[in-house]
Specification:
The chain is built from 15 helices and 14 strands. It is globular. Helix 10 links the parallel strand 13 and strand 14. Bound molecules: 2'-deoxy-thymidine-beta-L-rhamnose.
């Protein structure tokens, strides 16, 4: 069945909300060939992620997706068959009223944040009646096993990654295109994408004195923190040497180049939601800086993921990885360096483990396909 889609996205902060919505919209348009209308409240944030976006246009076609500026008052439009509300962003009332007037009623889905917590399995795909209107919205939880909605994964992603990771010349060509030198096996590449983190200066200092390392620093918060530590300008394209540590300031990459960065590196520091998932598809060892929440709610989510990620691994490696991730997420400058050293010694073990983990995740149906299957199932039910 051919579907048509409305996706609603509010940009709360950073890039995760629009990062996920754009990836989903793009995949629907390209892999299912279906009309997608993406409503975004903050075009300026979106433009950082996709430089071809014109922030002055209320309507535009971007890579086959109709991008609409979500404004108030909301324009009169006919809702599409499937309405995705990303991260409980509340589509406007005028649009909800238009949904009520549409027959058959659109399938309304709230695409929630990713979590490895067990409770999401019992809530995934449940429906909830709107308190006022004759509408039902359905909770859709991405996740790490078959009882959840799965993860975003384009159909060609892993095959493209395999080619990139096995073809040294393709990897070096890509590194050159970013003004980076060819990967040198004697100098491991580490990418850094994190929130402000008091544990970072200690790690940077440690890397200056250890074995040679090349740190590829993402634009934004990571680059600014490194700049403060360096006490000198660290602008895009700049390359600096501090002892054994080579530091490179990256521009903000396109999403597909960011994937290549993760594929090229021997270790990736990632954060939030989308880069965290992409690092898992990169099948390389990683450290996750989880999005900090009030009252430490994020620690429960961190532990829930660690429990899945490390299940069945020997205690030594479980403790090593957990210890570093915890000290990194506690912003603990003292213990982070000690735990990093232990983790780095185990990097070959985690290189193998990350491939195994990725292969296991790849057996799930991807999130885009699960959303489509769910919507088709609902639309096919007798009225
Ligand atoms: O940017 P994030 O921290 O995003 C979020 C938001 O804070 C959101 O409100 C919160 O709820 C969520 O995290 C959990 O991290 P994330 O999710 O990894 O999103 C970053 C996006 O930016 C992702 O799509 C990858 C992309 N990206 C690039 O395209 N190029 C780059 O150079 C970099 C560094 C990232």
């Amino acid at each position: 069945m051919q579907l048509s889609w409305d996706i609603f996205c509010t940009v709360i902060d950073n890039f995760g909300d629009i990062g996920v919505c754009w990836r989903l919209a793009h995949q629907l348009a390209h892999e299912r060939g279906e009309p997608v209308r993406l409503w975004v409240d903050d075009l300026a944030a979106f433009q950082i992620l996709h430089t071809q976006l014109d922030t002055n246009k209320a309507t535009q076609i971007l890579d086959g997706v109709e991008v609409r500026h979500w404004t108030t008052p909301f324009p009169a439009v006919i809702p599409r068959q499937v309405v995705i509300e990303a991260f409980a962003c509340n589509p406007p009332n005028d649009f909800l009223n238009a949904m009520v007037a549409t027959e058959p009623k659109p399938i309304w889905i709230n695409l929630d944040y990713l979590s490895a917590e067990a409770w999401i399995e019992s809530c995934h795909a449940l429906g909830s009646r709107h308190p006022r209107l004759p509408l039902t919205h359905h909770f859709f939880f991405p996740g790490f096993n078959k009882a959840t909605g799965g993860l975003l994964r384009e159909a060609c992603l892993l095959a493209e990654r395999d080619v990139f990771q096995t073809d040294i010349s393709a990897r070096n060509h890509w590194l050159h295109s970013l003004n980076l030198e060819a990967a040198d096996p004697a100098k491991p590449l580490i990418s850094l994408f994190c929130y402000d983190n008091a544990a970072l200066p200690g790690l940077l200092a440690h890397w200056t004195a250890g074995e040679p390392i090349c740190l590829l620093v993402a634009d934004g918060k990571p680059r600014r923190q490194v700049e403060v530590w360096l006490n000198e300008a660290f602008v895009h394209g700049k390359r600096l040497q501090r002892g054994q540590l080579t530091l490179v300031a990256l521009p903000f990459l396109s999403q597909s180049d960011y994937d290549r960065l993760l594929w090229a590196c021997d270790f990736n520091f990632v954060r939030g939601e989308d880069s965290f998932v992409r690092a898992q598809w990169a099948a390389r060892p990683m450290a996750w800086h989880i999005y900090p929440q009030e009252e430490d709610a994020h620690t429960v989510k961190l532990d829930a993921f660690l429990a899945r990620y490390l299940a069945d691994l020997p205690d030594v490696q479980c403790n090593t990885l957990s210890a570093f991730w915890h000290s990194w997420n506690r912003n603990d400058p003292i213990s982070a360096v000690t735990h990093w050293q232990a983790l780095w010694r185990e990097r070959n073990f985690f290189a193998t483990h990350s491939q195994h983990w990725c292969n296991t995740l790849a057996q799930q149906t991807d999130l885009m396909q699960q959303l489509a299957n769910f919507a088709i199932g609902k639309l096919s039910q007798p009225g």
